[in-house]
């Protein structure tokens, strides 16, 4: 019997879910309400595309496994993106000080514009056999509380049609209507948790100065325990010889869309490195703002009843404060869970959708505990009060972060967890507990770990810093 799957949404989660399904069913239809551009270009349904998007090691590995013939890494590099080792190629001020750059290159991150990443995935996935795209908006699920049997769609003129499918995947992003669609079938009570630190993102594109092509990724993070709004910056190299500067601030410390205030904000952070670099770089765009950043987690995997034939993936299940760079990787790990669970089974196998939802929740939970446990300490956060366990864990992670700045072993263990390659229990292993209690092997750094050549680039660009400043 012919098996058909429908995926709602043609962004990272939807495309990767379609890739996972295309070898396992006879036909996959991806529904997208946006008219998709032919190449790397912005589109209405992806407003976050104007902000820095870093693909973590776990996401990169998951995409390479889902699309082995694609060569995502090579394609992005050929188009001018970068692969950067988190342990050696990033200059990062963490909550407890500057992280060292170690000699060993590990934990690769992929940096390029979000438009390039999406265009590369679209070309690879929508060109696969048995996979098609339909320009339409999903408006409801068909079926009952026992089994979803398809989707009701509306075209651009509002004409409605019912499409039948054995499996429906909702990858409709933060604005997903999955909770309402399920309620219409009689499934209610999906638990939702929110940790909203009120983060606003402001981003601007700059021309990268000549000679800076190998300049490190720069990240300046806040300290959530400062009792001040958390202000951060990322300076990310992207294709086309450009830097994408993304600034962010939690409630009370938000950046604005005013281009004149952009540099001031970057200079006013815990360290002005990003501001000093962009002070002499040529801006190529206006400032783009985004407020869709709250941490929200919908516990679909714990629903009392769950219909066969329906799965929710990507931001539709959980969306995170973007400063942790987790969303696309969680989407990719969710698609891998879909492929794994569907592997040997029929799409009609009893309990399959529930199993996929539970398997996908593992990566969701890992990312959620990282982002929500940090964000709940910022002033003005909207969230449940921290529990005693939150207090104890936070003290331990703070100590570990301080030790990581001066210990390769602890630093790489933390990188394993922050890049979502290992879950948080890795940090509680006895050997790591001992290393954390023992303290850092090396003393704290006084300033950003830049090479002589990188310092020269900084001084060439710097229109504001004092010559004595590192
Ligand atoms: C400012 C900002 C910066 C970020 N930075 C990073 C980063 O550095 N690293 C990282 O990994 N993640 C980052 N993220 C998160 C990342 O953007 C998302 O996690 C990722 O896009 C999730 O993809 P998705 O496919 O689940 O949802 P989305 O990308 O939101 O896509 C949903 C798609 O579904 C379509 N759609 C929605 N409803 C319907 C419907 N009813 N019918 C048909 N189509 C529909 C939409 O048009 C859209 O194409 C950032 C997010 C923001 C806001």
UniProtKB/TrEMBL annotation:
Q: Which SUPFAM superfamilies match?
A: FAD/NAD(P)-binding domain
Keywords annotated in UniProt = Signal
What the entry lists under InterPro entries is as follows: FAD/NAD-bd_sf
Query: Signal peptide: which range, if any?
Result: 1-19
Q: Which Gene3D superfamilies match?
A: FAD/NAD(P)-binding domain (3.50.50.60)
Q: What is this protein called?
A: NAD(P)-binding protein
Q: What organism is recorded for this protein? A: Streptomyces glomeratus
